[in-house]
Amino acid sequence: MIVVSERVNTVKKTLNLPKFDATLNTDVCDARNNAELTLKLKLGFRQINPVGGAASGMYNDYGSATGTPRKIVKWTPGEWAAWKSNFVRSAQAFWHGKFWLVNQLGYFGYKVGAQIYLPNIWCRFEMVGSEASSGVHHHVIDVVRLDVTENWFGSHSTLYDSLDTRSVQKGTDSAGHAIMQRAHVHEVGHLLGLGHVDIGKAHCLATTNTNASACYGIADQDKNSVMGQGMQLRPEHAEPWMTAMREFVKVETKSTVYTIPPATGLQIALRVLDVLVPFVPKMQRQYPRKPAEVEARTLITAR
Amino acid sequence: MKTLYTSLVACVFGVGALAAMPAAADNTSNAQKASQKSAAKKDSKLMSTSKKCPPGNLHRSRCMIELLLEDLTANYGGVGGGGISSIKAASSTSYIVSLPQEERIDLLTYEFEVTADGSVSVKSKVASTQDVGRPSLTDNGVKK
């Protein structure tokens, strides 16, 4: 269920979507600044400690009874706080502010003086990490602290280890260069709803096991994607923000200052595409546009 | 059949990293097996390397495992994972190697050809993936 809450005297709305909360803020719009869409992911972290209060013990890969046991040690308050802080800070920095959604249909128009502007959407990301025992979370993440003798643990999107924020080699490109990745930013991609880079291709059909190694990329470019084996972001990784905007236009699209005119001639086919994809992701800053610029499909990257 | 299957579990090497974990594969659910099968694909590189082995099942299985380790060293592209977690006999002429990675376990099934004169060669290699269950989530993302 989607809950809409509106703050009095502001134009800021929050949708509580299944995977994250989304807040659209049009208060900040002016001739140079777009609307801001912030996805908030609330994670509850939970320590996995050796049983019986022991200083050290064993824990199996993936938390599975059949996984390989690895040596773990008890979390200390200082290590736990530092790990959580590093996780949240680095994951947020990775996903925050990297995308702009171009507003193809002229939603959310406003006036600056006599001039009408149509904002694009700047994609922000906020991660809130707290103890799993308190509050409401989108996901609960269990975390083991590996002993210094261990250098690897079998993690998945809701079970991490203390080394998962480090950069490690996940693959090799065709030239023999190492492809490095920090596992937690990949996993946060999953938590936002993104799948592996090659899903949908012949070697990784969506109907098969999409965790198969081929789904992490075959071509160098795909291997280097953050949803492959690397750290590179691509426009399609804005899909969680596009998903949120699809929900926002259902509840908040009307503008008293501007409605895009009906398409004519050759523009009709393009308008059909715009209706299907009303917000197009870009990885370069886009400035708010005037009506004529929207209608001419002109991108404004400097003003 | 089950007894035969179990009795063929791989021998345990002296090297710790190669410790066989028969329980892991024995406990694989039917759903997981189906998932593995759906993800399976033939590896394009078929090897012609063979070994002449002394008589006896111990030597024959040692030769098969040596051949698959040589192939793994030369051809397995996965880096950064947890190494080999098990080498398990799936039949008297095939072994399944498990290589844990983040979010998944890569499985390589080697089928061998054994001739009357005792030579062993790799007949085929099939790669598949075992999903390591992500927990089910409720609508608001809390664990069920």
Write a structural description.
- The complex is a heterodimer of chains A (303) and B (144).
- With 303 residues, chain A is of the alpha+beta class.
- Chain A has a domain of 208 residues.
- Helices cover 20% and strands 27% of the residues of chain A.
- Chain A is elongated and about 70 Å long.
- Chain A starts with a strand and ends in an 8-residue tail after the last helix.
- Chain B has 144 residues and is α+β, with helices and mostly antiparallel strands.
- Chain B has 4 helices and 6 strands; from the N terminus they run αααββαββββ.
- The longest helix of chain B is centred in the middle third of the chain and has 19 residues.
- Chains A and B meet through strand 13 of A and helix 3, strand 5 and strand 6 of B.
The pLDDT mean of chain B sits at: 70
- How many distinct domains of chain B? 1
Query: Termini of chain B, distance in Å?
Result: 37 Å
Q: Roughly what percent helix of chain B?
A: 25-40%
Q: Oligomerization state of this entry? A: heterodimer
**What characterizes the major β-sheet of chain A?**
9 strands, mixed
Which residues of chain B form runs of ≥5 with pLDDT under 50?
1-44, 135-144
In short:
The complex is a heterodimer of chains A (303) and B (144). Chain A is of the alpha+beta class and 303 residues long.
Show the helix and strand layout.
The complex is a heterodimer of chains A (303) and B (144).
Chain A: E1 4-6, E2 12-16, E3 21-25, E4 35-48, E5 56-60, E6 69-73, H1 77-95, E7 99-103, E8 110-112, E9 115-117, E10 121-131, E11 139-144, E12 159-161, E13 167-172, E14 178-182, H2 183-191, H3 220-223, H4 239-251, H5 267-276, E15 279-282, H6 291-295
Parallel strand pairs in A: 4-10, 4-11, 11-12
Antiparallel strand pairs in A: 1-2, 2-3, 3-4, 5-6, 7-10, 7-15, 8-9, 13-14
Chain B: H1 2-7, H2 22-26, H3 30-39, E1 41-42, E2 50-52, H4 57-75, E3 86-91, E4 94-101, E5 104-114, E6 119-131
Antiparallel strand pairs in B: 1-6, 2-6, 3-4, 4-5, 5-6
